[in-house]
Write a structure and sequence with these properties.
Blueprint: H1 6-20, H2 36-45, E1 53-66, E2 69-76, E3 79-86, H3 87-90, H4 92-101, E4 107-116, E5 122-133, E6 143-147, E7 150-154, H5 160-165, H6 167-173, H7 175-197, E8 201-202, E9 208-209, E10 221-224, E11 229-233, H8 238-246, E12 251-259, E13 271-280, H9 284-303, E14 307-310, E15 313-316, E16 322-325, H10 326-334, H11 344-353, H12 364-376, E17 384-390, E18 399-400, E19 403-414, E20 417-424, H13 429-442, H14 455-462, E21 468-474, H15 475-483
Parallel strand pairs: 3-5, 8-12, 16-17
Antiparallel strand pairs: 1-2, 1-4, 2-3, 4-5, 6-7, 9-11, 10-11, 12-13, 13-21, 14-15, 17-19, 18-19, 19-20, 20-21
Helix pairs in contact: 6-7, 7-9, 7-15, 10-12, 11-12, 13-14
């Protein structure tokens, strides 16, 4: 093998030595009667005189040689178990082989009887063992050294970029990282359980779409060779899920991947997991209540409590959450009453007067969004719902009956970041068509906020779509909250990273 380190070459020699001794370092099958924790529990629950035999498998985590005996630890998905190897049972040749050819990180199989050592640790007294998979590259969590005949690991695998690039090694050496992804899986199970219990149907919609829509974001573009057709990776499930309301389903949801060709930050990744649901015969107030109940339910199921600790703050997720009109919240936070600024020019002057960022090209709605993101969002630590948003940045939401320029939309914020977005769905096909046309006039053709016209969606709406409420939430951000992680990369198994040969700053961190 080309490019091996000296330590890797030594381990490769050990692998070949095992083969020459008639022991395959990568056998086809493993035998296991107990996980490490099952073996411990079997011993603890057995009668005092009973003999508990067990065969366990896992990765070698420690090796400590003491004359004619050796102590080691093996770790599997359930936990760790101490091994006790003694020359009296195994013979000097096998003991020497374990000492010489077995390394930390190797996967092994060990068979024996359970007992408790004088120090009180439940242990497997090994009568036979074998290699299951030789680790040629030492785990990067630590540097391996031989001290007084013992294999010793020290120093942590802590460099974030290295951990993200080699997530397999990160998981292998950092149990708390494995726990984060168990938490993530439990969150998804809880969300499904909550919606299934309320009669929602889980569905799947296309990832490759001829027209992207449902959000304000720039898509990734690809090409279908056989069909000679450009396609887009979806940025949202919304327009397809709402087609299903037209078809007669009264509640649908999907948990899946969205793709947005935009900058990355501590809360943005180009590929992320989204939950969206749509329910007929409700509105954004009904969805507010459902949102509060769902997040609290997930916390109770996953964490056993509705109080979470995030970035040093104790956050109470139990309903009801604080609800405040967006205009009033901005007035309280920065002293600007957006209701007094009916156009972009007026709002831009007010923002500039208070030292706020005020893009010369942005629409009034976009300026409000900037004002929210820069000044108000970071302060919303406890669960807060901001409602009633400008129509300009909400083309799929229904306007308020007494104010055509404001829509029935809300966003939920926790821990200083946006968690979810929802609204009363616009179900008037003529009004929806006018909104699409309005968006086309208001934004430049290359503006990522431009929402393309979707003729098939309009055709579906013309068949009749019931009054309904819709909801979208980033599963990654909910996992950040529950696992107390400050970066989205900590909760995505394989986050997107800049190529190593691209200079720092070229695209990455654009939204920091």
């Amino acid at each position: 093998m080309v490019g091996l380190s000296e330590l890797e070459k030594v381990r490769l020699e050990k692998s070949e030595r095992l083969r020459k001794a008639g022991q395959e370092p990568y056998p086809h099958q493993a035998r296991r009667t107990h996980t490490t924790q099952e073996a411990i529990q079997a011993y603890e629950s057995a009668e005092e005189t009973a003999t508990i035999e067990a065969t366990v498998v896992g990765r070698l985590r420690s090796i400590r040689k003491m004359g004619k005996v050796t102590f080691a630890h093996v770790e599997d998905g359930a936990g760790k178990l101490q091994l006790f190897l003694r020359e009296n049972e195994l013979g000097s040749e096998r003991m020497d082989q374990f000492a010489d050819d077995f390394d930390l990180g190797d996967f092994i199989e060990a068979q024996g009887t359970m007992f408790r050592t004088r120090t009180g640790e439940i242990t497997l007294h090994v009568v036979t063992f074998r290699m299951l998979a030789k680790s040629l590259t030492p785990l990067p969590a630590a540097k391996e050294e031989i001290v007084d005949g013992e294999s010793v690991m020290h120093s942590e695998f802590s460099d974030p970029e290295a951990r993200y690039r080699q997530r397999y090694a990160d998981l292998a050496v950092n149990p708390e990282v494995r726990e984060t992804f168990r938490t993530r899986a439990a969150i998804i199970r809880a969300l499904r359980e909550f919606l299934d219990q309320r009669g929602f149907l889980e569905v799947e919609t296309p990832i490759l779409q001829p027209i992207y829509g449902g959000a304000a974001a720039k898509p990734f573009t690809t090409h279908h060779n056989q069909l000679h057709q450009d396609l887009f990776l979806r940025i949202s499930f919304e327009l397809y899920l709402k087609r299903l309301l037209v078809g007669g389903f009264e509640g649908v949801y999907e948990i899946g991947r969205d793709f947005r060709n935009e900058g990355v930050s501590f809360k943005h990744n180009p590929e992320f997991t989204q939950l969206e649901f749509y329910q007929a015969y409700t509105d954004y107030e009904g969805v507010m209540t459902l949102t509060e109940e769902m997040v609290a339910f997930a916390a109770e199921q996953v964490l056993g409590t509705t109080t979470v600790s995030y970035r040093g703050e104790e956050i109470d997720l139990s309903p009801p959450w604080k609800r405040i009109e967006l205009a009033q919240a901005l007035k309280d936070a920065v002293g600007i009453d957006i209701r007094n600024h009916a156009d972009a020019g007026s709002l831009r002057k007010a923002m500039a007067a208070t030292g706020q960022e005020a893009s010369a090209q942005a629409s009034r709605g976009k300026l409000i969004d900037i004002l929210l993101g820069n000044t108000l969002e970071p302060t919303l630590i406890q669960p807060t719902i901001l409602y009633d948003y400008p129509r300009e940045i909400s083309p799929l939401a229904k306007s308020k009956p007494d104010d055509p320029n404001t829509v029935e939309r809300f966003e939920g914020f926790i821990g200083g970041m946006e968690l979810c977005n929802a609204f009363t769905e616009l179900n008037d096909p003529l009004e929806q068509e006018a909104r699409f046309q309005e968006m086309g006039r208001e934004f430049d053709v290359d503006d990522e906020e431009l929402h393309p016209m979707d003729e098939d969606y309009l055709r579906a709406m013309r068949y009749g779509m019931p009054p309904s409420g819709g909801f979208g939430m980033g599963v990654d951000r909910l996992t950040m909250l529950f696992a107390d992680k400050t970066s989205i990369r900590e909760v995505i198994l394989f986050p997107h990273l800049r190529s190593k040969d691209v200079e720092a700053g070229d695209g990455e961190g654009a939204n920091e």
